[in-house]
Design goal:
Elements (H helix, E strand, L loop, with lengths): L4 H5 L1 H11 L4 H20 L5 H27 L4 E2 L1 H14 L4 H13 L14 H10 L4 H9 L3 H4 L2 H8 L3 H19 L3 H24 L1 H4 L15 H6 L6 H6 L17 H11 L3 E2 L5 H16 L11 H10 L1
Antiparallel strand pairs: 1-2
Bound molecules: zinc ion (2 copies).
Cofactor: Fe(2+)
Family: Belongs to the fatty acid desaturase type 1 family.
Keywords: Fatty acid biosynthesis, Fatty acid metabolism, Iron, Lipid biosynthesis, Lipid metabolism, Membrane, Oxidoreductase, Transmembrane, Transmembrane helix
């Protein structure tokens, strides 16, 4: 598998390659490195915190997670359901706490990711390995194909949403405030926590962890798991990623049916998916509507697969994974 010593030992040569090629994204690279330094400071401060602050940091995991999954992913990137203004505004606030770039930029990159998965035009192309798909892509300049693809798609719907444009206008300052300062202000105001404890634990540490939980969807869920819906695609059904990414790891289904608001085949009783539950609860009180599903399309897909199987047609063979390619090259 790809998580081998190779991945670590090749880091210096990869860095030197990008340094010589002038393709390091210095501002983002420095920012992501700083995020990890303040995150580690947060980890060292956990024992100095009040219990309420730890609970607050914990609750901010699903709150900021929903800003990504329910918000920028399922609503704004894929338009898998429609939401009223108050819901969109609340999701924008949650998304700002998650601080993963503006809704506009995230949705743009994500649409490109779906259209060009596992090619040069995919911002976090998993064929370049676990580390690149996880976070390495943020350390280097975008491949020219990613930039080209981002210009070619239509984002009129995003431009027309005042909530998206409001956040874009205030980017990155509003998101930085919501991610680091706001959690600390709540902790100081309501249970008398020291500001910097709130800043480093409910802000920085929680932020760093939720970033990695989201990145696991691009790395682990693109490399490890089952492929029941599309054997040819990389994205996989990964229950561990679903746990950390509040229901977003059922990724083979999601890439096959990206318009499905549940981003998974089954209901929440058989596939962990608090993001689906959140959308269902909002629909029950009439705040969101028009939830689309991919189940009817899959019924036809499954019938076709079963027919082929009975007729003795073999399933198509999946492309080799990066570590299989490496292994084959070594044994040559
Ligand atoms: Zn994906
Ligand atoms: Zn998606």
């Amino acid at each position: 598998m790809d998580l081998s010593l190779d991945m670590l030992t090749s880091i210096p040569s990869v860095i030197s390659h990008h340094y010589k090629a002038g393709t390091i994204n210095w501002p983002m690279g420095i920012y992501i490195t700083l995020v990890h330094i303040v995150g580690v400071v947060g980890a060292l401060k956990v024992l100095d915190c009040k219990m309420e602050t730890l609970m607050w940091a914990f609750i901010l995991w699903p709150i900021s997670g929903f800003g990504i999954t329910v918000g920028v992913h399922r609503l704004w990137s894929h338009r898998s359901y429609s939401a009223s203004f108050p819901v969109r505004f609340a999701l924008m606030l949650c998304n700002s706490i998650a601080n993963q770039g503006s809704i506009f930029h995230w949705a743009r990159d994500h649409r490109v990711h779906h259209k060009y998965s596992e090619t040069d035009a995919d911002p976090h192309n998993a064929t370049r390995g676990f580390f690149f798909a996880h976070m390495g892509w943020l350390y280097v300049k975008k491949h020219p194909e990613v930039v080209r693809a981002g210009k070619e798609l239509d984002f009129t719907d995003l431009y027309e949403d005042p909530v998206v444009m409001f956040q874009k206008k205030l980017d990155p300052w509003f998101a930085l405030y919501m991610c680091f300062v706001f959690p600390a202000q709540i902790a100081t105001r309501f249970w008398g926590e020291e500001f910097w404890n709130g800043f480093f634990v409910a802000g920085a540490l929680r932020y760093m962890l939720v970033l990695h939980f989201t990145w696991l969807v691009n790395s682990a869920a693109h490399l490890y798991g089952d492929h029941p819906y599309d054997v040819l695609s990389y994205p996989a059904e990964n229950p561990y990623v679903s746990f950390f990414a509040v229901g977003e790891g059922w990724h083979n289904w999601h890439h096959k049916y990206p318009f499905d608001y549940a981003a998974s085949e089954f209901g929440i009783s058989s596939q962990f998916n608090p993001s689906k539950l959140c959308i269902d609860l909002l629909a029950a009180v009439g705040l969101v509507w028009g939830r689309k599903r991919g189940t009817a399309a899959w019924e036809m897909g499954r019938a076709r697969r079963d027919r082929d199987r009975e007729a003795g047609v073999p399933l198509p063979k999946a492309p080799p994974r990066p570590w299989e390619v490496k292994k084959a090259a070594k044994s040559d």
